[in-house]
Amino acid sequence: MWGKEDYLLNFLILFQRLIAKNVKLTHLGLENVKTLCAVDVAYDREEGYAVAVKQEGDKIEYKITKGKVTFPYIPGFLFMREAPIMIKAIEGYQCDLLLVDGHGLAHPRKSGIATVIGVLLDIPTMGIAKSKLAGDIVEENGIYYVVINGEKVGVKAGKYFYSPGNKTDLQDVIEMSKRGYPEILKIADKLSKQAKKDKNMSSDYKIW
DNA sequence: GCGACAG
DNA sequence: ATCTTGTCGC
Predict the structure, then answer these.
(1) With a 7 Å cutoff on the CB, does A196 touch strand C?
(2) Where is this site: Interaction with target DNA (predicted)?
(3) Which of residues 33-52 of A touch strand C (CB under 7 A)?
(4) Cβ contact A181 with chain C strand, < 7 A
(5) Is A186 helix (H, G, I), strand (E, B) or coil?
(6) Least enclosed by CB within 10 Å: which of A68, A115, A128, A142?
(7) Contact between residue A194 and residue A156 where contact means Cβ atoms under 8 Å apart
(8) What fold, for A7-207?
């Protein structure tokens, strides 16, 4: 039903080009980030459990959103599967920066899920992925850049890939990569996987 | 045709 | 992502 030759994918490519055209690669400056957020999703068949985690100083809170996720995972089009529920999960949270599990600019059309969410919500986002989707790794002055079409679109640090989503730049992701894999993403991952196990959860607001 | 391919 | 035991390594 969702073949590569499907006209829908051609349409989605047009959508991604529009998103890429509207990306703002401005410098955020991690020192200005007081409220940091992250989102991740876990699955149980067709049931998706998205968790948005918000951190401000020592205060950490999170919100769980459960919902049907039927669109399949297609490399390059992850946003169609996870962006809807992620956006729903982050709803109501005001953050200086949102970390998304996946790529941002380090995408064939510079339109990874972190970029799509950032542009649609007009907020600063950064994509952090556990594996590569596209590009070559080129070392320069100790930094391993992800290069696509001769352009530096992100960096690789350890086993993770960092790339700007929206309203962030290469310097921001380089700084973030030097801090190591964000604890808040580990929390989001852990909570989402925990949520799908707890069959009797209330799918809403909780605080630590 | 062959290899690559976020979660 | 998810299915899954023991096991190699820091």
Answers:
(1) yes
(2) 73
(3) 41-44
(4) no
(5) helix
(6) A142
(7) no
(8) archaeoglobus fulgidus dsm 4304 fold (3.30.2170)
